[in-house]
Amino acid sequence: NFPGQTSVYHGKVRDVYDINDDLLVMVATDRISAFDVILPEGIPYKGQVLNQIATYFLEATRGIVPNWRLATPDPMVTVGYKAEGFKVEMIIRGYLTGSHDQEVVIDIIHVAYLAVIHTCLSGKIKVGFD
User: Fold this and answer.
1) CA angle 113, 34, 84 (to 5 degrees)
2) Are 82 and 21 in contact (CB under 8 A)?
3) In 3D, which of 65, 69, 87 has the Cα closest to residue 25?
4) Is the four-CA dihedral 129, 59, 56, 68 of positive or negative sign?
5) Do 55 and 61 contact (CB within 8 A), yes or no?
6) At residue 16, what are phi and psi to the nearest 5 degrees?
């Protein structure tokens, strides 16, 4: 348990600890799931690699849009602000062909990105992403 911990969520691949309803401590694990089932054997270093990739991109884009991350005290752990999620779901197919189809996908991503930025800047949510 962490000091000030108010709850814990054990998900399929990460554990999330709520600290004083202000901060989240996310622990990426080596667990792997398929079809909503946690498999008995994890993948060594999976959590560390995924967390370090996320840390890299959160830090790289911090100047473009603020994010929830405060610190990465361990390769498998990220600490950050608790934020209200802004859900955007996209499916990008790998078999699109031709320049027109690629332009459509880029337009969809651009619209979703602008919606997130507008919502964050208008103060409707705390800035942060899941």
Assistant:
1) 35
2) yes
3) 69
4) negative
5) no
6) -125, 120
Task: Assess whether pLDDT exceeds 50 at residue 114.
Answer: yes
Q: For residue range 34-82, what is the model confidence (pLDDT) as tens digits?
A: 877 778 888 899 999 999 999 999 999 888 888 899 999 999 999 999 9
Which residue, among 36, 59, 32, 34, has the nearest Cα to 46 in the 3D structure? 32
CB-neighbour burial class of residue 32 (10 A; exposed 0-12, middle 13-18, buried 19+): middle
User: What is each CA distance from 90 to 77, 104, 112, in whole angstroms?
Assistant: 27, 13, 9
Q: How far apart (Å, rounded) are the C-alpha atoms in residues 5 and 7?
A: 6
Contact 75, 52 (CB under 8 A): yes
Which residue is listed with tokens 């390769």?
Answer: 75
CB 42 within 8 A of CB 32: yes
C-alpha 96/C-alpha 119 separation (Å) is 30
Q: Give the number of C-alpha atoms closer than 13 A to the C-alpha of residue 11, restricted to the C-beta side.
A: 11
pTM for the whole structure: 0.64
